[in-house]
Amino acid sequence: MQPLTPQTFSRIDKLLLDDRGQSPEQSRQTRQAHGLAVVTGQDVAASYELQLALLSAINLGTRTFGAKVDVFAPEPVWSAPCLVPAGGNGSLLEAVTSLGGQRSVQPPASQRHHILIGAGVESLRSIRATFDGWLVGVGPARQMPRLQERPLCPLAPIAAAALAVCEIFADFAQLNVEAARRTVSFSLWRPDRDASDGAGVGQPIVDLPASVGVFGLGHLGQAYLWALAALRYEDREKVQFTLYDDDPVEPPNLETGVLLQSTDVGGLKTRAIAHWLEARDFTTRVIERRITESYRLSGAEPLLGLCGFDDNQSRQWLTGVGLARIFDSGLGGEAYNFDTIAFHAWPNPRPTDKLWKVESASELAERVERRRAAVNSNAGYAALGVSEECGHIELAGKSVAVPFVGALSACMVVAELLKSLNGGPVFSDITLRLVSSDAGSADAVLQSEVATPIRGVKTQGVPQTSG
């Protein structure tokens, strides 16, 4: 077994190490043994949105549990063409297999929680993933009725799949006794209102962003691109994504980065992700340098930015590069808050130094001491085989990250981008918890009922046949 280093340390296994002192090896083995299963109905064969939910669940489930996802579906599903660009141009079976799924000839065992998509046969352990417009709903199938699943926004089926994976993982990891036994729902259109509010279904999309900059291609940046690639573009070749990053792909990135494969390890993230996008007919541009205080956009760079940075200094610098709008999210990186999503739009009512506060030297020192105390009180760190205390502290400093959190965050971020282009209600700040007892309840600050038009931004219409 290779020695554990910050470059090989699984961010998912770190959650169980910090939460209960479980060794990374034991965590990996239990995750793989548990795995994930999905049951679908025959209606998945002809539905873009249901296929998107299925493929998102497989992609996230494979990475979260580290094992192939078992998919049980009627025969016509497997020979159906894949309608979703992320799955490629072949059959749905080929798409499922490429993302880490495997065809199952038997439904899941009666004691195993599994995701139910579409008109599949429900059982006592079915966790239904459903949607309606911009509304997302997940819960035990006998408590969560199937919603109307009107195809107003492709982000909703992604969010439903991610939330269903979250519920099953939280039950597996014993993070909340209610997980997989409750219903959770919220609206990407109106996160400030109860899901039962009729306004949460939202409105159809007319305009899509044709030029977007994605700053940082880690956990969040790749999730943004999975969500953007799911939008129903009329001509993908006329859509350009500019990719800003200079980091190489490391083994732990394969668990949290939804666009990466094992063959990408060692290469630059920009190259691997550009290849993924171009294989789906999008146009890309790569900028392999860090954003600094002096960076300014050139005339060819996009005016819309999605920020996936993990430090506030870079976020502050990004506001000065010349972007018209920035859509940013940050995730909790500790075992107690890894499921927290914080969205911020810029311009924002708060100044940047208040919105994204930079840690002082004394605050950093205090954080290191808290980390040292956590290591000393957790027997799991002593068993890692890392001899020096500084090695333990460095490992303890790595963030916890699980891919379904990034996927849900991406749906929220891209939803705000779409509403800004389509005159919908926009929010300056949103906070959402996924695993806690109030999962799905968002703390959201409404900025405007009708978004102010963004000038100079390239857009593309939605095909007439999309609805």
Shape: globular
Question: What's the CATH class label of the largest domain?
Answer: Alpha Beta
CATH topology of the largest domain: Rossmann fold
Q: Could you tell me how far the N terminus lies from the C terminus, measured between alpha carbons in angstroms? A: 52 Å
Number of helices: 15
CATH-assigned homologous superfamily of the largest domain: NAD(P)-binding Rossmann-like Domain
Helix content: 25-40%
**On the 0-100 scale, what is the average pLDDT?**
94
CA radius of gyration: 21 Å
Assembly classification: single chain
Total number of beta strands: 17
For the biggest β-sheet, the strand order reads 11-10-9-12-13-14-15-16
- Strand-residue fraction? 15-25%
Sequence stretches where pLDDT stays below 50 over 5 or more residues? none
The second-level CATH architecture of the largest domain is 3-Layer(aba) Sandwich
Major sheet, described briefly?
Answer: 8 strands, mixed
Provide the domain count.
2
Assign the structural class, choosing from mainly alpha, mainly beta, alpha/beta, alpha+beta, or little secondary structure: alpha/beta
